[in-house]
Amino acid sequence: MKLLIDEMYPPALADGLRDAGIDATTVGEIGFAGSSDPNVFAAAISLGRVLLTENVADFARIAAEHLNAGDHHPGLIIALSSRFSRRAAARKPLIDAIAALAAEQLADRVIYLQHAHRA
Predict the structure, then answer these.
(1) How many domains does the chain have?
(2) To 10 degrees, what angle do helices 91-100 and 11-19 make?
(3) CA 25 – CA 5 distance, rounded (Å)
(4) pLDDT tens digits, residue range 37-61?
(5) Which one of 14, 15, 106, 113 has the lowest number of neighbouring Cβ atoms within 10 Å?
(6) Range of the domain at 6
(7) pTM (2 decimals)?
């Protein structure tokens, strides 16, 4: 999985995901900090990266409009703030949940992230 992390997340999340074997970069690292949501979504598409965000209102709509226009996208992962905290102490569950999706086909899908189940 190649992941683009929206700017509400700290850069340390990208580091933690890379440590977990996930190719992750941030909106800031690609020079899109402060960009509009449609531009961030377009950047994710052009880079072939699944977008991680907690901004469900805007990005779910953008993804739906994109698909309705007959276009495709690499995928959208929504980590609701009510389920996943951005605080450093709570970062591991978010990383684990994303890692659990690493082998899945995410193209054209909107995934509402759930906590990973432990065996």
Answers:
(1) 1
(2) 50
(3) 6
(4) 999 999 999 999 999 999 999 999 9
(5) 15
(6) 2-112
(7) 0.94
